[in-house]
Design brief:
Elements lengths: L18 E7 L10 H7 L3 E6 L17 E5 L6 E2 L2 H5 L5 E6 L3 H10 L7 E4 L21 H12 L2 H19 L29 E5 L3 E6 L16 H9 L4 E2 L8 E7 L2 H12 L4 E9 L7 E3 L14 E10 L2 E8 L6 H8 L13 H11 L6 E9 L6 E5 L4 H10 L8
Parallel strand pairs: 1-2, 1-5, 3-5, 3-6, 4-6, 10-15
Antiparallel strand pairs: 7-8, 8-10, 9-10, 11-14, 11-15, 12-13, 13-14, 15-16
């Protein structure tokens, strides 16, 4: 905040067991809209590390040598929801690492700084969005860094700690907005503890595949996030479904943004954790459709270990494949991942020299262009077709199936492959 409004002199330190490590890009340090440094003033055992300068490379590997559990608050695809249950799995005191700055700066920090690849990635459970937007281009529904730290410490430490930090943040925001021509309170976002109603942001509601008192499944469109990152990425499926049915939902698993298909939510955090236990125990059968460059009827299994990030430990990763049909030099595969690693199907097909059409990260630009120009197909050709899992209450087998979106179905029809789909 502005120096004239600084609260630093009157802030008392909270003595916590948790250590806070704030990571900021050098261009963010000193900005009046940066809220993370206020947390450093309020919390004992907190440190600031600056990255992005050429003359000094940041290295945080020493954090893992302190006998503490290192948690990185960063919404990667494999991040787990920060909860009391997660904390009981490893009772060591926590070092909470929080990257501040823009989405691009935070993502680079999470990927490139030594020591962060080995940290456990965690995200906050779905909760009320921020009432304020201190920057001119805030992410819709997002949190300021200080707010995210406060909510995380509410889980790790206590609700009282969160309330104390929230009061400090509210005071800082109120003083800052008083200096501006008009306050930028989000009228469309309910205050903390207030109404849960939001205006839907899609003209067409999400297609609901299944719903009962415990679970709800939708057919996620390609290009839609499951939950918010720290950028203006548009409304995610989590928020849209909440708006559509008028109640909170909790994601059970993840789909890549570019992947369409079955996406499962629970109506409570407890139920979400029960179903996640079945995923972790490999009790869930997942079926995907992928259109690839190349076709090989002998491609039955890819057993190739994968790492979360470059330099991270390799983890066992297995995907079963079956070729359903082919067109020219392209093949339609059904994929059954036995493990759940980051981008597993995409990375395994790349490893097998059969990259997925439309995959801008692991695919081939030449073939992606062919499908854009020849067939007008502009997305990743990967669809989560079906989930089979035991119901968390009855334990009866539940089958959830999402039919192909129209653009993918039309493409397979033109290639003569739609009739090859199995039931």
């Amino acid at each position: 905040m502005h120096r004239a409004l600084c609260l630093c002199a009157g802030i008392g330190k909270l003595e916590l067991a948790t250590k806070l490590v704030l990571i900021m890009h050098h261009r963010e340090v000193g900005k009046t809209t940066a809220t993370g440094p206020l947390a450093l003033r309020a919390l004992s055992h907190s440190t600031l590390h600056v990255h992005g300068t050429r003359d000094q490379q940041l290295d945080l590997r020493a954090l893992h040598a302190q006998g503490r559990r290192v948690l990185l608050l960063y919404p990667s695809d494999d991040a787990r929801v920060l909860s009391s249950e997660l904390l009981t799995q490893d009772p060591r005191p926590v070092t909470l690492v929080v990257p501040d700055g823009s989405w691009r700066q935070a993502s680079r920090a999470a990927r490139r700084i030594p020591g962060l690849a080995e940290a456990e990635h965690v995200v906050l459970a779905q909760g009320p969005a921020s009432q304020y937007g201190l920057r001119h281009e805030p992410k819709e529904g997002g949190l300021a860094t200080f707010e995210a730290i406060g909510r995380a410490l509410g889980v790790i430490e206590s609700a009282q700690v969160e309330q104390q930090l929230e009061a400090l943040f509210t005071r800082m925001v109120t003083d800052t907005l008083a200096t501006r021509a008009r306050p930028r309170v989000r009228a469309s976002v309910a205050p903390r503890g207030g109404s849960d109603a939001h205006e839907p942001q899609l003209k067409t509601p999400l297609e609901i595949l299944y719903r009962d008192d415990e679970l709800i499944a939708v057919n996620k469109p390609a290009g839609m996030l499951v939950h918010h990152g720290w950028a203006r990425d548009g409304a995610p499926a989590l928020q849209l479904l909440r708006d559509q049915i008028g109640k909170h939902v909790f994601p059970v698993h993840r789909l890549d943004r570019a992947t369409s298909g079955v996406l499962l939510f629970a109506h409570s955090g407890e139920l979400a954790r029960m179903v996640q236990g079945d995923f972790n125990a490999h009790s869930v059968d997942k079926r995907y459709l992928a259109l690839c460059r190349g076709h090989d009827a002998d491609l039955r299994e890819v057993d190739h270990p994968l790492a979360k990030e470059r330099g991270a430990p390799l983890q066992p990763s297995i995907t079963d494949f079956s070729l359903l049909g082919s067109f020219e030099r392209y093949g339609l595969y059904e994929a059954h991942p036995r493990t759940g690693r980051l981008h597993q199907i995409r990375r395994h097909l790349k490893h097998a020299s059969h990259p997925i059409i439309g995959d801008v990260r692991y695919g081939k630009g030449e073939h992606n262009r062919i499908f854009r120009e020849r067939f007008g197909f502009h997305r990743l050709a990967l669809h989560a077709l079906q989930l089979q899992l035991p119901h968390p209450r009855s334990r009866e087998l539940l089958t959830l199936r999402a039919e192909l979106p129209q653009d993918f179905a039309d493409l397979l029809e033109r290639l003569g492959l739609r009739s090859k789909l199995t039931s």
